[in-house]
């Protein structure tokens, strides 16, 4: 045992060193031309750095650090640093932090807020202060339709996801009879409504609303079976969706189960049990990290692997950095730069519409196979 | 929305399925309700921390399965899982019993000794419920504080996430009623609840301990004068409530399989409702209240949709209390056919 662990450890160390070297090799050469602005500026991050959702926030912070590391290697005149404002993902904690971000004059751009709830609470504050925001992860549809001009996001909203989910159901799963369920909360209801609207109306055989915290779905299971549905879409989180699919399979229902990014979590499989979870399709606006990004990320973050939303945070930061490079070093100028930005990041082409949403994005379908959520090989939904 | 099947049609055609799965869920409500009703019968006190007694039981079942089976998820039928489930049952009854006794010792006895008003004990119960829930929700940090975080990681990691029993129980259809195939799990849950109810009633009616419980419920002072040790009786009452919650927790884990630190809250409210519906302080009332609530919820979902389930059951509760203010069976534990 000890010998194998040692070997593994050695290999890991060697791997990390190799990654670090190769990362240096690839990024060291990129040009240092055209940096006209000088001085030092701060990009703020607002989101959950600690707390129950802290892991997601750390993924984002890692993405920002990766972008900054590459930028600082070019020895730019304008120095850019990161300041983390930890909201723990809660709207009430985010609110006072928003005030201190706004009053910190060195902050010219914000990566965040992390979640939709906190975004709703603080966006009016940032919009009033004219501070450009790019969220890597807040997907609620309304966020870009509430008149907060400075809010942008590089992640596809639930509008994109819901439409893609409907497409998956009709084109890939060939569903003729879909039963649409949501968890009665903002995220789940929003997503389920888009799915329902995007499906041909003849394909929706029933709808139901369950509740967060509910564990017995026997009546809903009865309804689904009675409706003759060949597939179920669930808008909500894994705690409920995992139990729902388990109870459906236990009741002998064999259809296709599709849910959104609230369920796209390895815990979905744990809650459902491997057997019941197999075959489930869980969609997300975030794709898996590319090999070269993973390398670069690990090098900038002490060997930590990239995670969900790392790439979005990386791209968001790079948009700001491109603006700073171009000499747009005030909040107002940077906001204009972001609005007219057009480029290609690690997540694909990025361009914002007048609301602050990306004009196009890819939604991925992740599959549960052999009792595991395969996070490496999702199918892009086309 | 336009193609939604007619709700009454759904209720009529799926009547056996909705009723039987409702009874199965209602059995869990009933077993938890017994704990509320016992304590109320003896102390005229609503033990709001009882939901957490149940929650600890659910974790005991899952921990036993984890200890015996390991973390890999596996699906087994009821017979294959019987060994693990029986051990889980014992563990759940022991842990729930201990938690209930602890509650009595820490949150009630000092107050009762000082003759504090009932409302103070109620507040104390609510506080104890929060404390117990947080202990479970912070168990990862508690384990780390003792340097056991690594060794116990399968048991404590992600303390606030759902915790799932690695052994999934796959129900096996036995026979059909109408168009529903009744499963072994359905039968087990309903029969277990009836059996526990029967055992408990026999215990209260026929044994010396039971006589003590009835005596204290009727008149604590007279009972004390007759030489009944009321502290012992109160302890025993809490213990019985805990044991019943442990049985309920095992049935719950067989059917649902997953629990959380906050998992007792909703079921606690349901069980309390069931106890009031049946007549709080009445053992049979708790059983009937639980079963009625489970079934009515399912019917309500079929006719009005899931979001109306609680409305249905609480409207029913109000109606029952309007007609019979003391619940369906409405008599106190002390008067239970002595």
End-to-end CA span of chain A:
47 Å
Percent range for β-strand residues of chain B = 5-15%
Order of helices and strands of chain A: HEHEHEHEEHEHEHEHEHHEHHHEEEE
- Per CATH, the superfamily of the largest domain in chain A is Response regulator
Q: Which percent band covers the strand fraction of chain A?
A: 15-25%
Q: Outline the biggest β-sheet of chain B.
A: 2 strands, parallel
User: In CATH, what is the class of chain B?
Assistant: Mainly Alpha
Assembly level: heterodimer
Structural overview:
The complex is a heterodimer of chains A (382) and B (338). With 382 residues, chain A is of the alpha/beta class. Chain A folds into 2 domains: 211 residues, Rossmann fold (3-Layer(aba) Sandwich); 144 residues, Response regulator (Rossmann fold, 3-Layer(aba) Sandwich), CATH 3.40.50. Helix content of chain A is 44%, strand content 20%. Chain A is built from 13 helices and 14 strands. In chain A, the strands form 3 sheets. A 7-stranded mixed beta sheet of chain A has the order 7-6-8-9-10-13-14, with helices on both faces. Chain A has a 5-stranded parallel beta sheet with strand order 2-1-3-4-5. Chain A has a two-stranded antiparallel ribbon with strand order 11-12. Chain A starts with a helix and ends with a strand. The N terminus of chain A is likely disordered. With 338 residues, chain B is mainly alpha-helical. Chain B has one domain: ABC transporter involved in vitamin B12 uptake, BtuC. Helices cover 70% and strands 6% of the residues of chain B. Chain B contains 14 helices and 6 strands. In chain B, the strands form 3 sheets. A two-stranded parallel sheet of chain B has the order 1-3. In chain B, helix 2 packs antiparallel against helix 13, helix 3 runs parallel beside helix 5 and helix 4 packs antiparallel against helix 11. Chain B is globular, with a radius of gyration of 20 Å. At the A-B interface, strand 7, helix 7, helix 8, helix 9 and helix 10 of A face helix 2, helix 12 and helix 13 of B.
């Amino acid at each position: 045992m000890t010998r194998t662990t040692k070997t593994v450890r050695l290999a890991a160390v060697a791997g990390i060193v190799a990654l670090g070297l190769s990362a240096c090799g690839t990024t060291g050469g990129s040009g240092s031309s055209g940096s006209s602005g000088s001085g030092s500026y701060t990009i703020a991050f607002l989101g959950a750095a600690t707390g129950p959702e802290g892991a997601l926030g750390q993924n984002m912070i890692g993405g920002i650090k990766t972008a900054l590391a590459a930028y600082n290697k070019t020895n730019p005149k304008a120095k850019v640093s990161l300041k983390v404002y930890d909201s723990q993902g809660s709207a009430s904690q985010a609110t006072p932090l928003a005030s201190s971000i706004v009053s910190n004059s060195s902050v010219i751009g914000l990566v965040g807020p992390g979640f939709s709830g906190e975004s709703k609470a603080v966006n009016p504050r940032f919009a009033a202060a004219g501070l450009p925001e790019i969220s890597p992860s807040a997907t609620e549809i309304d966020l870009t339709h509430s008149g907060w001009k400075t809010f942008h996001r590089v992640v596809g909203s639930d509008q994109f996801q819901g439409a893609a989910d409907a497409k998956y159901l009709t084109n890939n799963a060939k569903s003729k009879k879909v039963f649409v369920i949501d968890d009665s909360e903002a995220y789940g209801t929003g997503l389920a409504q888009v799915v329902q609207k995007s499906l041909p109306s003849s394909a929706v055989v029933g709808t139901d609303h369950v509740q967060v915290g509910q564990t017995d779905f026997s009546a809903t299971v009865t309804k689904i079976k009675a409706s003759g549905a060949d597939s179920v879409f669930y808008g909500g989180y894994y705690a409920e969706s995992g139990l729902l699919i388990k109870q459906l399979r236990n009741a002998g229902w064999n259809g296709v189960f599709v849910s959104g990014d609230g369920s796209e979590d390895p815990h979905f499989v744990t809650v459902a049990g491997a057997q019941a979870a197999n075959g489930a399709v869980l969609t997300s606006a975030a794709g898996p990290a590319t090999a070269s990004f993973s390398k670069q990320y690990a090098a900038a973050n002490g060997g930590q692997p990239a995670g969900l939303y790392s790439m979005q945070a990386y791209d968001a930061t790079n948009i700001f950095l491109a603006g700073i490079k171009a000499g747009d070093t005030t909040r107002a100028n940077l906001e204009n730069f972001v609005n007219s930005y057009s480029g290609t990041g690690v997540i694909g082409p990025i361009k914002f519409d007048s609301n602050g949403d990306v004009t196009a994005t890819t939604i991925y379908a992740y599959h549960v196979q052999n009792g595991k959520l395969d996070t490496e090989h999702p199918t892009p939904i086309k | 929305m336009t193609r939604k099947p007619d709700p009454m049609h759904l209720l009529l055609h799926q009547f056996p399925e909705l009723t039987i799965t409702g009874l199965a869920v209602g059995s869990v409500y009933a077993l938890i309700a017994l704990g509320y009703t016992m304590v109320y019968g003896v102390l005229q006190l609503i033990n709001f921390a009882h939901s957490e007694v149940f929650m600890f039981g659910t974790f005991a079942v899952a921990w036993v399965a984890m200890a015996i089976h390991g973390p890999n998820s596996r699906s087994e039928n009821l017979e294959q899982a019987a060994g693990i489930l029986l051990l889980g049952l014992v563990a759940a009854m022991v842990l729930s019993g201990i938690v209930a006794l602890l509650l009595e010792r820490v949150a009630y006895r000092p107050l009762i000794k000082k003759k504090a008003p009932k409302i103070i004990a109620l507040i104390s119960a609510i506080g104890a419920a929060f404390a117990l829930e947080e202990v479970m929700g912070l168990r990862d940090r508690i384990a780390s504080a003792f340097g056991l975080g690594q060794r116990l990681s399968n048991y404590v990691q992600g303390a606030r996430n759902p915790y799932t029993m690695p052994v999934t129980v796959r129900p096996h259809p036995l026979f059909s009623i109408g168009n529903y195939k009744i499963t072994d799990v359905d039968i087990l849950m309903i029969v277990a609840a009836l059996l526990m109810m029967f055992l408990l009633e026999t215990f209260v009616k026929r044994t010396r301990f039971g006589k003590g419980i009835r005596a204290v419920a009727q008149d604590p002072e007279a009972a004390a004068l007759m030489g009944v040790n009321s502290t012992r009786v109160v302890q025993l009452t809490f213990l019985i409530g805990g044991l019943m919650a442990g049985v309920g927790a095992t049935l719950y884990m067989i059917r649902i399989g997953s629990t959380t630190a906050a998992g007792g809250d909703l079921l606690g409210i349901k069980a309390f409702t069931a106890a009031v519906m049946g007549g709080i302080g009445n053992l049979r009332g708790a059983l009937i209240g639980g079963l009625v609530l489970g079934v009515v919820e399912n019917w309500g979902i079929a006719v009005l949709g899931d979001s109306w389930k609680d409305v249905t059951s609480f409207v029913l509760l109000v109606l029952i209390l309007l007609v019979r203010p003391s619940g369906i069976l409405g008599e106190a534990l002390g008067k239970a056919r002595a």
